[in-house]
Amino acid sequence: MACILISGSLGYDRIMDFPGYFKEHFLPNQLHNINVSFPIKTLSENFGGTAGNIAYNLKLLGEEPDMHVTAGSDFDRYRARLRDLRISTEHIQITPTKPCSFANIMTDKANNQITAFYPGASHEPYVSDIRHETAHVAIIAAGSSTDPLSFVRAYKAAKIPYFFDPAQQIPDLTGDALRRGIDGAHIVFGNDYEFKMMTEMTGWQEEDMLDHAQALVITLGEKGSRIVTPEGQWPVHAAHSKTIVDPTGAGDAFRAGFIKGYVNNLPLPQCSKLGSIVAIHAIEAYGTQNHRFTMESLGKRYEAVYGETFPL
């Protein structure tokens, strides 16, 4: 069992289904003057946040997540849930003057999403001590715009391998902040669009990033992922399902599966395959933390999808 440090957001997701296609409601010649209303089919509130979602999946995978995040005045019911799941809340900092973060997420029939994110307490700097004595690896997920570099500095000083995953936070960061986060990272995570943003903001192309980070993991949605290292690159096809219920949280689930493989010394392509198998369980349930699996069921699905022996 590995101790994995996680920073990011912790909050509530309000997930809504739009029974149409967003693209049908945006007029190309009126994009400067958008005024659109989407009638929603379903609405539910779920436990979420990047740190919470990654921790949930890592716990299912038998690891020990340790969140270093800031929660707000409405954290009590989330705390009770984490304790029921036996996920540590010891290093969760509370800001009583603000609520936890929340995200309003709309998903259309093509699984495109529009999200309005309120950072709430997670926007407050994490000022508690970052405990790292037993840590195997850390992931810096999207959260407060003031936090990433403090975690980067702490992990570099402690010589803890860290994964840099700025994701939705990229627009809030500067090119210099992104460069400092990438510099020294063992893995840089992002989808293809996020990597395009990072190249524009940093002025670094993929080959430039590899002068500073050990590997890039670029997710491509239903097309899978691409792993890029100084030695070469490997495409990994995604696991697919006939039952896509809700894509929210699939990226966080992928990261948890990848980390599980990494701390078990699997080759990076196998880490990505494991991430894809965990992600497919997430999209087959509504909400980000409502899916379940065992290592046995995970292994059977891995072998069915990839035609190779489950490595764990």
Structure description:
The protein is α/β, with parallel strands linked by helices. The chain has one domain (3-22, 41-306): UDP-N-acetylmuramoyl-L-alanine:D-glutamate ligase, CATH 3.40.1190.20. 31% of the residues lie in helices and 23% in strands. It contains nine helices and 14 strands. The protein has helices at residues 50-60, 76-84, 148-158, 175-182, 192-202, 206-209, 250-263, 268-283, 295-306; strands spanning 3-7, 11-17, 42-48, 64-67, 70-71, 93-94, 101-107, 113-118, 135-141, 162-165, 187-191, 215-219, 225-229, 232-236. The strands form three sheets. An eight-stranded mixed β-sheet has the order 4-1-9-10-11-12-13-14, with helices on both faces. A four-stranded mixed β-sheet has the order 3-2-7-8. Helix 4 crosses helix 5 and helix 7 packs antiparallel against helix 8. The longest helix is centred in the last third of the chain and has 16 residues, at 268-283. The chain starts with a strand and ends in a 6-residue tail after the last helix.
Taking the sheet with the most strands, its summary is: 8 strands, mixed
Distance between the termini: 13 Å
Helical content band: 25-40%
Radius of gyration: 19 Å
Search tags:
312 residues, alpha/beta, UDP-N-acetylmuramoyl-L-alanine:D-glutamate ligase, eight-stranded mixed sheet, four-stranded mixed sheet, 23% strand, globular
